[in-house]
Design goal:
This protein is α/β, with parallel strands linked by helices. Among the domains are: about 35-50 and about 60-200, Rossmann fold (3-Layer(aba) Sandwich), CATH 3.40.50.980; about 455-560, 2-Layer Sandwich (GMP Synthetase, Chain A, domain 3). The strands form 7 sheets. Strands 2-1-13-12-14-15-16-17-18 form a 9-stranded mixed beta sheet, sandwiched between helices. The two termini are about 40 Å apart. The relative contact order is 0.09. Bound molecules: 5'-O-[(R)-(benzoyloxy)(hydroxy)phosphoryl]adenosine. 5'-O-[(R)-(benzoyloxy)(hydroxy)phosphoryl]adenosine binds near residues 259 and 325. It comes from Actinomycetospora chibensis. This is (2,3-dihydroxybenzoyl)adenylate synthase.
Length: about 575
């Protein structure tokens, strides 16, 4: 039975009207929509190259006029298929040029993209589709030894609301039956489309949070709030029509999308180059071939690029700026980037929920190396409060505390998450970021840790509870706890403590890792190491909460006892 999906705005916590008015009066919220963003680029830069990359049908290079014609044509085809304004559509695409075509087609149609990461697998896609009541999934066919189309069909079979699976593939012969190819939906560009006069204060799309509890939360962003962050980011980062931006990280990530990312480039009329893989070989080749001026990476990737410069024959001289964010960039790494890569470093500390901080082009080197920058907007409100203080009193200036924020592009609540919102936001609308920070006298933020139940594995966020739940689904497991342990390359990796069912043959670590992976989750969530134990080693003192338990276990994991081999099978199969 097909039930009618609830409207998109249901389950959204709006900005209070007087606050919205203030953001409009200040000129942050201009009434621009995503369709309007592309209109403006077409009007000012129609014949300039918008996007370069290799899709399922081979290499592509489209001007803004061409991108727009494709998006309009696809919007018409998706409309004929039955995708309606207000529908949610899971966009599950790797870094292919079609990503921009699809996203702008959905905006033109007034449908809302739900941004999944390429690393996600059926269990995550199913959850997004269910939670957002998505009517369609757009993906690719077989790629990176994984059949996305087949997995999307599996999800469509399990989730009532999903009626269509659309696949970017060269021809129908390359995909399973039951899916529609993107090519078959391309129509002659239509005139007016429903999204052309979308309400700028409405929700434009749903972005993913890293998640701290069971499953990632969905983040509703309005045209007004998000496009303010895009335009302001483009200005702070000095983007212009000559900018050639390399999208090395997944296009759907907030960093790549808007800090200033692909959308900032559209605003500026520059060119986006979509890298099929983030490795130095691929990216250095693209930097040389396309004259890339700006790229964005996570710290482990920055380290790998720095390492690779010594043996590359590629000319990287076009690269002016390298943005590093998503996880803390160690000062030692930060210091190498300028001299080794010949590009200026910009640190970016952001979150899909809103707040983004940048070091600025004219900051002294020490600030760029030692801090994670300062907010985009003069109206980003920053509070640093005493961790675990029920009254959330401000710390003394310069002290470390928990970061709370509120502002013109930070959400007031997750999508359809009333219960979680009650703890993730203060009564007066501040978002509890879960990050531990301190401020320098100039207001630059230095990230020093976190209070949230999340592991940051080289920029990829893992909710401990989500992975624990997967382990608990194993019939031979009675309890499990996931902790982050320091890692030279990733910053942090995951370690699982698993208690087996007494009296049965304990499962082997490698089998448990395979079990988690086979449940259809992103590879980065599969625990790096698994230790099967009779009881949690640190529970003697009577831990009262999972949080206390994880903290104690994390301490324990960081102090390996001599001769201990946590997981003899760890190298048997690499999780990523
Ligand atoms: C970005 O967004 P998310 O939503 O994947 O993750 C946000 C979290 C932050 O709360 C913080 O814990 C961590 O990632 N983080 C950093 C950081 N940048 C993000 N921690 C330390 N130093 C940094 N530079 O990761 C994101 C979104 C937009 C732009 C850049 C990153």
């Amino acid at each position: 039975m097909t039930t009618t999906a609830r409207p998109a705005e249901e389950g959204v916590v709006p900005y209070p009207p007087e606050v919205a008015e203030r953001y409009r009066a200040a000129g942050y919220w201009t009434g621009q929509t995503f369709a309007g963003l592309l209109d403006a680029a077409v009007a000012a830069h129609g014949t300039r190259t918008a996007v370069v990359g290799t899709g399922p049908s081979g290499p592509q290079r489209w001007t803004y006029d061409e991108l727009d014609a494709r998006a309009r044509g696809l919007a018409a085809g998706l409309g004929e298929l039955g995708v309606a304004p207000g529908d949610r559509v899971v966009v599950w695409l790797p870094n292919v040029p079609e990503y921009l075509e699809v996203v702008f087609a959905l905006f033109r149609l007034g449908a809302l993209p739900v941004f999944a990461l390429p690393a996600h697998r059926a269990s995550e896609i199913r959850y997004f589709a269910e939670h957002a009541e998505a009517t369609a999934i757009v993906t690719v066919g077989r790629r990176d030894r994984f059949d996305h189309a087949a997995a999307a069909l599996e999800v469509a079979g399990a989730v009532d609301a999903v009626r269509h699976v659309v696949v970017a593939a060269p021809s129908a012969g390359d995909v399973p039956s039951g899916v529609v190819t993107l090519g078959s939906l391309r129509r002659t560009p239509a005139g007016a489309l429903p999204g052309d006069d979308a309400d700028p204060s409405s929700i434009a799309f749903l972005q993913l949070s890293g998640g701290t509890t069971g499953l990632p939360k969905l983040i509703p962003r309005t045209h007004d709030d998000y496009l303010y962050s895009v335009r302001a980011s483009a200005e702070i980062c000095g983007l212009g029509p000559d900018t050639v931006y390399l999208a090395a990280l997944p296009a759907a990530h907030n960093f790549t999308m808007s800090s200033p990312g692909l959308l900032g480039v559209v605003h500026a009329g520059g060119t986006s180059v979509l890298a099929p893989s983030p490795d130095a070989d691929t990216c250095f080749g693209l930097i040389e071939a396309e004259g890339v001026t700006l790229a964005a990476v996570v710290p482990p990737l920055a380290a790998a690029w720095v390492q690779a410069t010594s043996s590359t024959s590629r000319d990287l001289s076009s690269l002016q700026e390298l943005q590093v964010g998503g996880a803390k960039c160690a000062a030692e790494l930060a210091r190498k980037i300028g001299p080794v890569l010949g590009a200026r470093l910009q640190q970016v500390f952001g979150m899909a929920e809103g707040l983004v901080n940048y070091t600025r082009a004219d900051d002294p080197d020490d600030i760029v190396v030692e801090t994670q920058g300062r907010p985009i907007s003069p109206d980003d409100e920053i509070r640093v409060v005493v961790p675990d203080d029920p009254e959330e009193r401000d710390v003394a200036p310069g002290e470390v505390g928990a970061l709370l924020t509120r502002g013109p592009y930070t959400i007031r609540g997750y999508y359809r998450a009333e219960e979680h919102n009650a703890t993730a936001f203060t009564a007066d609308g501040f978002y509890r970021t879960g990050d531990l920070v301190r401020l320098d006298p100039a207001g630059n933020i230095i990230v020093s840790g976190r209070v949230k139940e999340q592991i940051n594995r080289g920029g990829e966020k893992i909710a401990a509870e989500e992975v624990e739940n997967h382990l608990l689904a194993h019939p031979d497991v009675v309890d499990a706890a996931i902790v982050g342990v320091p890692d030279d390359f990733l910053g942090e990796r995951t370690h699982a403590y698993v208690i087996p069912v007494p009296g049965r043959e304990p499962p082997r670590p490698a089998a448990l890792r395979r079990f988690v992976r086979d449940r259809g989750v992103a590879a980065y969530k599969v625990p790096d190491t698994v230790e099967v134990v009779d009881a949690f080693p640190a529970t003697g003192v009577g831990k009262t909460s999972r949080r206390a338990l994880r903290a104690a276990l994390a301490d324990h994991a960081r102090r390996p006892t001599p001769g201990q081999h946590p997981d003899p099978d760890a190298d048997e199969e690499s999780p990523s």
